[in-house]
């Protein structure tokens, strides 16, 4: 009867509804939907952008600092001193190079999490990088205005791409971050180590943000006013990125995707190695306090060693043993 046919059709549709939803979420070739692809694509773009930003800052810090009017011309009226000394300028460029490497760490976070393919992890990382991008844009603008620089084309070239990157990352990541759930997969040794190291990194970054960290040598002459303001801009931005990077790595552990945790921890090892190497080379310039640099290098070497041997290598060995055990069973 028509009534039975209608009831039967309704029952069939109810049974097929989950499959219809899955089909609607992908095309005929099984390609993930735009919602699924957005965080991955955004992270790849952001990773490339922050890598280029890091290279530009690292290889040509003087060019970027000149946009910020540092060192200022003698006729600019900065205090009674004629201008920053050559050692002051080198010190500012050195600290700016550290900040550039931290930007490279953001690129490593973005690219490693994009590679794993877990949508929830990617969404959380995208939101975190979006927040970082907007924070450093605000920090750069306020720091530049404190140096007496008026907003213009040169400043816009530095700020606008980062603002666009931040807004794009939030747009791509927020939907997945709100709708997704942790995978609750084993975090293994990489997750345990990365979470602990990230906590320590957050504490160290807060020291930079609030001005507790001081690398100046004892007996160093009183710096020029423009140098004080420039360092007052660089250190909070450096520390802020460090804090946010640590929080993002904690979020990766919280997301609970084993592969993502492993890849992000492995990328973090390379970041610590690069930053530690830069600090070792900076000792040659003899511009910063050697004892304080040594303390920082000990921490960085500890982070790198624990992350690599206690995380990456330990998980690799565990995977090999598990594979060998399966072979014996066969």
What does this structure look like?
The chain is mainly alpha-helical. Helix content is 79%, strand content 0%. It has ten helices and no strands. Helix 2 crosses helix 3, helix 5 packs antiparallel against helix 8 and helix 7 crosses helix 9. The radius of gyration is 25 Å and the shape is globular. The termini are far apart.
Features:
mainly alpha; 330 residues
Q: Which stretches are poorly predicted, pLDDT < 50 over at least 5 residues?
A: 1-32
Tally the helices: 10
Report the sheet with the most strands, covering strand number, pairing sense and barrel closure. none
Order of helices and strands: HHHHHHHHHH
Overall number of strands: 0
Separation of the first and last Cα atoms: 57 Å
Residues in helices, as a percent range: over 70%
Shape: globular
Radius of gyration (Å): 25 Å
Beta strand %? under 5%
The averaged pLDDT comes out at 82
- What structural class do helix, strand and pairing data support? mainly alpha
């Amino acid at each position: 009867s028509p009534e039975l046919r209608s009831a039967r059709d309704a029952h069939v549709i109810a049974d097929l509804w989950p499959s219809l939803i899955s089909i609607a979420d992908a095309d005929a070739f099984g390609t993930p939907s735009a919602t699924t692809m957005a965080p991955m694509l955004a992270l790849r773009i952001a990773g490339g952008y922050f890598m280029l930003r890091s290279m530009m800052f690292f290889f040509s810090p003087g060019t970027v600092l000149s946009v910020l009017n540092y060192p200022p011309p003698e006729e600019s009226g900065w205090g009674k001193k004629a201008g920053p000394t050559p050692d002051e300028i080198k010190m500012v460029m050195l600290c700016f190079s550290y900040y550039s490497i931290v930007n490279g760490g953001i690129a490593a976070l973005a690219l490693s999490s994009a590679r794993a393919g877990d949508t929830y992890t990617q969404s959380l990382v995208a939101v975190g990088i979006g927040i970082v991008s907007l924070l450093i844009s605000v920090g750069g603008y306020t720091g530049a205005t404190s140096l007496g620089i008026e907003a213009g084309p040169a400043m816009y070239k530095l700020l606008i791409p980062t603002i666009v990157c931040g807004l794009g990352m939030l747009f791509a990541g927020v939907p997945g971050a709100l709708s997704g759930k942790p995978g609750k997969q084993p975090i293994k040794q990489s997750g345990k180590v990365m979470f602990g190291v990230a906590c320590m990194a957050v504490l160290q970054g807060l020291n930079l943000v609030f001005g507790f960290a001081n690398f100046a040598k004892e007996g160093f002459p009183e710096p020029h006013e423009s140098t004080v303001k420039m360092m007052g801009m660089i250190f909070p931005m450096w520390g802020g990125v460090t804090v946010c990077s640590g929080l993002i790595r904690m979020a990766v552990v919280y997301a609970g995707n084993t592969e993502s945790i492993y890849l992000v921890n492995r990328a973090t090892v390379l970041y610590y190695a690069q930053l530690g190497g830069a600090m070792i080379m900076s000792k040659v310039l003899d511009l910063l306090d050697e004892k304080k640099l040594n303390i920082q290098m000990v921490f960085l070497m500890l982070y790198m060693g624990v992350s690599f041997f206690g995380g990456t290598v330990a998980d690799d060995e565990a995977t090999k043993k598990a594979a060998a055990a399966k072979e014996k069973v066969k």
